[in-house]
Amino acid sequence: MLVVLFEDDSYDELSPLIEYRPAFFLKIGAFSLWEYLQIHFPQEKLVSFSERELIAEKYELAFDHEIIRGKPVLFLNGRILPEMENLLVLKKILGQKGELALFDEQNDEQNNKQKKLVLLKTQRVDFAVKLATLLGKAREIQKRALKNKSESKNAGKNEKQKHSLKTLSNVFELPKLNALLLPQHLKIQVQKHHEIMPHVYSDLPLKLADNLALDTSAGAIFIASDAVIEPWVHLKGPLWISEKCLIKSHSQIEKSYLGKQVKLSGEVINVLVYPYSNKSHHGFLGDSVIGSWVNLGAGATTSNLKNTYGDVKGYLLNSGEKIITGENRIGTIMGDFAKIAINSTILTGKLVGFGASVMGLIKGNVAPFRFYIDLEKHSVWTLPSFLRMTEKMFERRNIKLSTQEIALITNIFHQFVLQN
């Protein structure tokens, strides 16, 4: 069966991490939905599309709707969680005959319930082709799917009760989900590698410095063979350290996923870090998600727990919608290319937008490309200055800033600065 991943029109609720990648490439735990399905459904043809043209180009998501002709199709929302319970449901659905449409209900800003398409399995080739011709029109796909469900003779009245899939509703859910799914994903990863000591896994050969403390009492540790762990470091599982990472001396890293070429120091607990980001000095980072190409200066610290021990209330970055999280531990979600100055402090549950530069005490969300000192003092990057800085940053990692990358950054700048 052909499996097609798509973004619905609520991907904006995943900002500031969604500007630089499609929803199905967001990592939750250690894998994105795309990666998770590739592992568990190697026999199925997996394709995807995004309505955002430059995102589609960056991730090579070119999609020809003609490939659907003559095939049954399973459409999957990119917000589906890459986790075991969802996997079992998908296996059942793939093994069953007939058509199926699954929706979840979400409240909009006016507190009205709206149905979002989560899954659509159709055997009707003509209908699948019609949907495929609507690529980039998530609302239209959803409308057609709702109509198809009501018209289909094979879709029973109790389909929603038989099957349900867990999805990511908003960006504030990520810290808790990362903690829940990282152990699941580590079990998959360690099966392909050597156990160099009890519950510590790697490729061979792996050279570890002396005077390391490795605690696997709460979960396994995976360390890529070319990662560098300096002396006097404490590592506690579940923990995933990807290729060419650097963990500096006197650091404490726990329950986290570190993407490739990440540099870390200080105290880091329950954090997902995308590739090429730096936190090379002391400071606390907890219950947070850090995008790619982020830099945190010396002493930069996030708060992940309110003094009252109460639940964190967050605000979506673009709409400003208030989110009652029901969680008391949420740190900071930092968009790609953000910069945090030395000795800065970010209060609980704040969002830092794509390309923002902040310093001091950060009391609220920070919009993309803003220079932020406090709520009253902020300015905006110019695009030429931002691109020059980005080019220098890439050169420090021996990477050339491509014309494709420049086009995507320029488009994001126009969207959030010139249009707003």
Oligomer: single chain
- C-alpha Rg (nearest Å): 22 Å
Low-pLDDT parts are: 133-138, 152-161
Distance between the termini: 43 Å
* Total number of beta strands: 31
Helix count? 9
Overall outline: globular
Mean pLDDT: 88
Provide the β-strand percentage band: 25-35%
Broad structural category:
alpha/beta
Helix amount = 10-25%
Largest sheet descriptor: 12 strands, mixed
Model description:
This protein has 420 residues and is α/β, with parallel strands linked by helices. The chain is 24% helix and 26% strand. The chain has 9 helices and 31 strands. It has helices spanning 33-40, 53-58, 84-95, 125-132, 138-151, 159-162, 174-190, 383-396, 403-418, and strands at 2-6, 45-48, 73-77, 100-107, 113-122, 194-197, 200-202, 213-215, 221-223, 228-229, 234-236, 239-241, 246-247, 252-254, 257-258, 263-264, 267-273, 278-279, 284-290, 295-296, 301-302, 313-315, 322-324, 332-334, 339-340, 345-346, 350-352, 357-358, 361-362, 370-372, 378-380. Strands 6, 7, 8, 9, 11, 12, 14, 15, 17, 19, 24 and 27 form a 12-stranded mixed beta sheet that branches. A 5-stranded mixed beta sheet has the order 2-1-3-5-4, sandwiched between helices. Strand 30 and strand 31 form a beta hairpin. The longest helix has 17 residues, at 174-190. The chain is globular. The two termini are 43 Å apart. Mean pLDDT is 88; it is low at 133-138 and 152-161.
Annotation keywords:
420 residues; alpha/beta; 5-stranded mixed β-sheet; 31 strands; 26% strand; globular
